[in-house]
């Protein structure tokens, strides 16, 4: 377990803490950067009233090969130079935790074609069809998951009629991932490049969220995670000339006209930290995102909890991946964080034949689920063998997309379509969190709305034409 520094929660704005750390370690020994501010007097569903607090990322506090949690505890041992300095300066430290480096396991099992290794550049851009190995189900044709027998996302889009573009353009979705390919045909129509951000350490421009691959590694096939999930979320219309797509001329994404803010929180091999997740969620909140789609996750964190609660109280719908595991291997099989939190909808998997995305033959990748206490706020979407746009191959879209990474943007797209339909009504709720927390219980309502169409309430009953009241789940 590695850490990229420490995360420290202090009361107030953190200035006293910054002075104390400079005293303890020297002016050039540490770098202190605020990553999340909890306003004074916050009284939402997730946060108690407070005098205000700040989460800070502090570099260079964790040294050597020690366990990062041991390092965090050692910093606060009475008598240590750090504890003495912060106490003397009046820097009221509430919490400290390591900024854990994590990697999202989204690739196919070892030995899958073409595998995670290097290939010829031309081979990277060769179409890969669905794969039924390991007892995985295959769907009928291209973009099958959008069809009426499956997610009905295409039908829900059609239900918005001539107002599809106008209504979806009012919905703001934050897409947290490895970034995007500026030149791919599936790039969303309304990608908000003015608000794009990168929180990945080492990126040259924090206002550029495009996916970067190190020099010399462009032939690695298993990269471009963000390009592919973004295409499922809001991918543009294909023109019928894509290789091996048999004249397909429709949108590849579930919510193609939504306004999408690209936020890069992980590098090209999907390595991220707690702090990049926290900063990405907060950037989404500060810029008015109504929906957040994040096809990754990992360990829990107090800083992550605060970021989620602030976003939830602001009325944001958060859907994140449940996680992946290898069948027959000792890998975690229950839902990861932040999908595990009750205020986040966990995206699990269901296959084309209706089976759960689990119980596959070893060592096939499959989706996480459980515990049962979480499943009331979990929802399945179709995976594997769904569309998967290939970075740096301008018109290539494979059909071997897999993992709960593929499920997540489909659910976010469904939420966007629902919000596009009912947007004028949501202002009736006195508190922003009521939209998703009470009015729309996502695991039930999105399913019933897709199945019943926009003329039904979220509990699946006929609305009797009462379209002027906010839809509710009972």
From TrEMBL:
Indicate yes or no for the key word Ribosomal protein: no
Peptidase S8/S53 domain location: 170-422
Q: Which PROSITE patterns match?
A: SUBTILASE (PS51892), SUBTILASE_SER (PS00138)
- Active-site residues (renumbered): 177 (charge relay system), 225 (charge relay system), 405 (charge relay system)
Q: Name one GO biological process term.
A: proteolysis
What Pfam families does the annotation carry? Peptidase_S8 (PF00082)
Q: Where is the signal peptide?
A: none
PANTHER family reported in the protein's UniProt record:
CEREVISIN-RELATED, PEPTIDASE S8
Can you name this protein?
A: Peptidase S8 and S53 subtilisin kexin sedolisin
In the record, what lineage is assigned to the organism producing the protein? Bacteria, Pseudomonadati, Pseudomonadota, Alphaproteobacteria, Hyphomicrobiales
């Amino acid at each position: 377990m590695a850490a990229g520094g420490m995360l420290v929660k202090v009361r107030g704005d953190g200035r006293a803490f910054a002075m104390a750390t400079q005293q303890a370690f020297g002016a050039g020994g540490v770098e202190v950067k605020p990553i999340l501010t909890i306003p004074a007097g916050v009284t939402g569903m997730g946060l108690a009233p407070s005098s205000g607090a700040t989460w800070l990322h502090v570099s260079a506090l964790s040294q050597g090969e020690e366990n990062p949690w041991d390092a965090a505890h050692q910093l606060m041992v009475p008598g240590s130079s750090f504890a003495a300095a912060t106490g003397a300066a009046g820097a009221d430290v509430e919490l400290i935790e390591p900024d854990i480096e994590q990697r999202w396991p989204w690739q196919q099992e070892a030995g899958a074609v073409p595998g995670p290794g290097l290939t010829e550049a031309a081979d990277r851009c060769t179409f890969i069809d669905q794969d039924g190995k390991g007892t995985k189900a295959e769907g009928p044709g291209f973009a099958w998951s959008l069809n009426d027998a499956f997610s009905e996302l295409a039908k829900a889009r059609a239900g918005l009629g001539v107002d599809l573009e106008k209504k979806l353009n009012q919905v703001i979705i934050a897409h947290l991932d490895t970034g995007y390919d500026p030149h791919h045909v599936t790039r969303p129509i309304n990608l908000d490049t003015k608000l794009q951000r990168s929180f990945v350490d080492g990126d040259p421009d924090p206002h550029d969220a495009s996916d970067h691959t190190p020099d010399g590694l462009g032939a690695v096939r298993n990269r471009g995670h963000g390009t592919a999930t973004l295409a499922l979320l809001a991918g543009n219309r294909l023109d019928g000339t894509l290789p091996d797509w048999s004249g397909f001329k429709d949108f590849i994404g579930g919510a193609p006209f939504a306004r999408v803010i690209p936020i890069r929180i992980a590098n090209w091999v999907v390595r991220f930290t707690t702090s990049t997740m926290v900063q990405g969620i907060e950037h989404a909140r500060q810029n008015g995102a109504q929906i957040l789609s994040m096809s990754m996750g990992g360990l829990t964190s107090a800083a992550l909890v605060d970021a989620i609660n602030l976003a939830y109280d602001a009325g944001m719908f958060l859907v994140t991946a449940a996680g992946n595991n290898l069948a027959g291997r000792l890998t975690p099989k229950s839902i990861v964080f932040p999908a595990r939190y009750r205020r986040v909808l966990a995206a699990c998997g269901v296959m084309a034949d209706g089976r759960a995305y689990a119980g596959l033959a070893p060592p096939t990748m499959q989706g996480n689920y459980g515990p049962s206490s979480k499943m009331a706020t979990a929802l399945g979407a179709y995976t594997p063998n769904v569309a998967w746009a290939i970075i740096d191959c301008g018109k290539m879209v494979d059909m071997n997309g897999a993992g709960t990474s593929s499920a997540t943007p489909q659910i976010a797209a469904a939420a966007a379509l629902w919000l596009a339909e009912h947007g004028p009504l949501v202002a009736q709720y006195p508190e922003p969190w009521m939209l998703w927390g009470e009015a729309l219980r996502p695991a039930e309502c999105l399913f019933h709305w897709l199945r019943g169409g926009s003329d039904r309430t979220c509990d699946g009953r006929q609305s009797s034409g009462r379209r002027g009241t906010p839809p509710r789940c009972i």
